[in-house]
Design goal:
It is a single chain. The two termini are 38 Å apart. The chain contains 3 helices and no strands. The chain has one domain. The longest helix is centred in the N-terminal third of the chain and has 26 residues, at 4-29. The chain is mainly α. It has helices at residues 4-29, 39-64, 67-80.
Length: 99
């Protein structure tokens, strides 16, 4: 399992590379849609998305790395492994009651 720190480092690396590509893409694509932003405006727009992307990448990495999934599956096992309560004869399944 990847440590939280390494998840963070991976997410930051991903964001830095993505930020550079995003700025380049904005400079090329914005004018095609009639949007004309200066370099400083493109950099500022990119900064807003960097924060969101960093949080998203980190959260998804931790989710799929098992931290949250383990909690979910543990809770799911607790719910599905419960023994059913005793019911009266003729009113459903007849099982033993949990102490």
């Amino acid at each position: 399992m990847q440590s939280r720190w390494m998840s963070f480092v991976e997410a930051v690396t991903n964001i830095v590379v993505g930020y550079g590509l995003a700025i380049l893409t904005q400079i090329i694509v914005f004018p095609l849609f009639g949007l004309h932003a200066s370099l400083s405006e493109n950099l500022l727009i990119g900064c807003f998305f960097v924060g969101v992307s960093l949080i998203r990448s980190f959260a998804i990495r931790r989710l799929f790395d098992g931290e949250w999934m383990t909690r979910f599956h543990r809770r799911d096992r607790e719910l599905t492994n419960r023994q059913p309560r005793l019911t009266r004869i003729g009113q459903g399944r007849e099982t033993t009651q949990r102490p």
